[in-house]
Amino acid sequence: MPDSLNPTVTPTASTAGQPVRFRGGGFTVKRHPWAALGAFAVLIGLWEGASRLGLASPLFLPPPSAVAHALAGMVTDGSLWLNLKASLARIAVGWVMGTAGGMLVGFAMGIFSTARAVGVPLVSAFFPIPKIALLPLFILWFGIGEPSKFATIGFGVFFPTVIATYSAIDQVPRNLIRMAQSFGLPWGSILRSIVLPGALPGILAGFRITASIALILVVAAEMIGAEYGIGAFVLMAGNLMQTDTLLAGVLVLSLLGLAIGTVLSQLERRLLNWR
Amino acid sequence: MTLARLTRRALIATAGAAFAAGTLMSAALAQPLEKATVGALALSSSGPIFIAKAKGYFEKEGLDVDVKMFTSAQQVPVAVASGDVDFGVTGLTAGFYNLASKGAVTIIAAQSRDEPGFPLSAYMATNAAYDAGLKTPADLKGKRIAITTVGSTFHYMIGLLAHKHGFTVKDVTMVPLQDVPKMVAAFKGGQVDAIIAPSTVSRQLASDGAGKILGWVGDETPWQLGALFTAPKTMKDRRPLVEKFVRAYKTALAEYHAAFNGKDASGALVKGPGYDELLGIIADATKQKPEIVAAGLPYVDPQARLLVDDVVNQVKFWQSEGQVDKSLDPKSVMDLSVAGE
Amino acid sequence: MRLLVSDLTHRYDDLTVLDGIDLTLAEGEILAVIGPSGCGKSTLLGIAGGIVAPTSGSIRVEGEVPDGCLNPITFIFQDFALLPWRTVEDNIALVLEHHKLSAAERRERVDSGLRRMGLSEFRNALPKQLSGGMRQRVGIARALAVRPAMLLLDEPLSALDAQTRELLMDDFLELWRREKTTALYVTHNLDEALRLADRVCVLSRRPGRIRELVTIEVPRERRQEPSAQAHLAEVRGRLWHLMKAEAQMADREIARA
Q1: Average model confidence (pLDDT) for chain A?
Q2: Is the pLDDT at B11 greater than 70, yes or no?
Q3: In the 8-state DSSP scheme, what is residue A195?
Q4: Is the domain defined by A56-272 classed in CATH 1.10.3720.10?
Q5: How far apart are CA A133 and CA A144, in angstroms?
């Protein structure tokens, strides 16, 4: 036999046998904590390089250094804090109002079938209306002060919260409710001890979405006569064609989104450690 | 083969256009037309461009000009800066000067002006503010006024008015609401004391009884509202094109001026030669009724002369407001070598 | 506490799941209910526990309840039905929360349940940290905390592995040795029925009717002895014969439908 041709497969002495080849591996998710940062760094580096080499016009794509400079300007003249404070207050009030209302209605729809029968078509009808299209109406209803801004954000947050809440209540395991009933727990206790905590994961997932919506809508809300606010700042930079300032504002918005996301992740980890 | 076909198609198109215009057959047939685009708003202030196009003045210069319509004044200089269009005509804003300061656009000739006797933009007071004593434009000091955006023409109009009556923009509260419909909503809702509104809007509001017209910007503070502009690169590399374009534009401008801008001894506007024809052209292009167009036709200089001092003043105003970089030399935003000033 | 079921019928829409059930549980008796899947065993239990309303027929209980009984008829569930967000002790305390009890008694009921089920050291654990057997022990401790007069057990061991099942059967035997609580025990496992029940009720395939009620003559505590094996084997044979026929026919009907 020509052993030399295929030495590993030939069944030679029984003492040697044949090693089992490893064929698992791959298809698993590994953590690469620095990969994302690295990719960002490379991207920013390329961007800056392209500007420095004159490949990209500073008007069309301001280099990161110009954006950083604009951002630094906002920090030193205090306008960053002024704008951020105004926007955060609007987001907070609008979001809290929309969320409180949405959860109330969502709970009613999750628990009472009549409320659901009435609510589902209404929500389906009103949810897709772009809130920006309603701004002139909001001005008439709520004026151009803070109330119309709260309303813009609140309305935007309200409908997704309703949907998230009643869907979350649907996700509460029925067997737990049956269990509670079999032990004679009163209606209110079942709601408090079972439905509310059981719906919490779904509601918190909804918060993630509504927080982003609030952030998007703060820009729309600040179209209405806002003196300060990150949204107003971005709009003004756009109107004035100050593209570096524009991107600095957008950067602040996205950092704000990142911060809110992180807070929500912490909250989830805290409240949902039982999962 | 390709060249032949192209030429034939160009000839047919040219012949058709020339026939429509009713003249200029021989001039057009001489050589293929050079393509050019101009960005404009569907407003009567863009009238001379529509006239030059409809009456074949561009073709006479050997140009095949495509007019691209935009919906806001801000978009036009951006389109010029990005090379989407070769020329633009629109109102001058802080955003425009910022683009100019980055070398993206330059003014080459005048467009419309606010002039006494030409009602373009009105100062309007709500009924409540009027009853409370807001009777003249000078009373706007200390009031809340809705504008579209910071850096807009409305913003500058307030600056001019303030300067004339010895106050500053800091003495009024400007409420930026992004667009005219929202300004009207805030005005009707009594959220502001006043607005500066285009003539059609202000006349509508006044006839609805929603407010009172206090006066017209043209009467109060004449200024260079708009301009014809292009990219400095076009000016450098395609100067013959710019020359042809401006020549055709000036022809239309003169015709527009003669038809619409004439006054009699008492200062009232009178209809000039070709009034109805030109009005029809503008009404077609702006998709407005002729009587509405007629009510808001702006003044243009027949020679396309720019109010240079006013443009310098605009730049200085924006610089003092912090909207435009202080290092910008006001003279550098214009290149009037072609228009001949 | 005794349970009296008479002429009980239950339908879901036009699907009859239980048809004419007559059944009596004596004081302290443990009745196993077996039958093929879908025969209505769990529905019967739900009706007995008052969480499913029967279409017709009556279901009643009679007799004394033990001292300190808070919930006479009490369930033990197949899937344990623990609140995943509550610790072991809070899961037990849940069913006491709506009763007026002194803090000391509350504590005592929770503690004694934990102690009896060997859960004292896991009192602060969350359900996800426990094995299946441990979770069911929490379920049993929770049931004991209300001092029930009758237990309704819905396949309580079917989610568990074989060894855990053996261990928990021992726990049940110990519980019934001490408490003598009447119990209705639904299962599809013959071993559980033969180890734990006094009588076994075989339900037919759907619509569930009582095929036969078999009494196991040997007392529970002597069923591990060699002398009992012959009888148990005979009962097992009979039960399996009944079950097998029903299960096969049920399978065919499902295949046809």
Answers
A1: 88
A2: no
A3: I
A4: yes
A5: 15
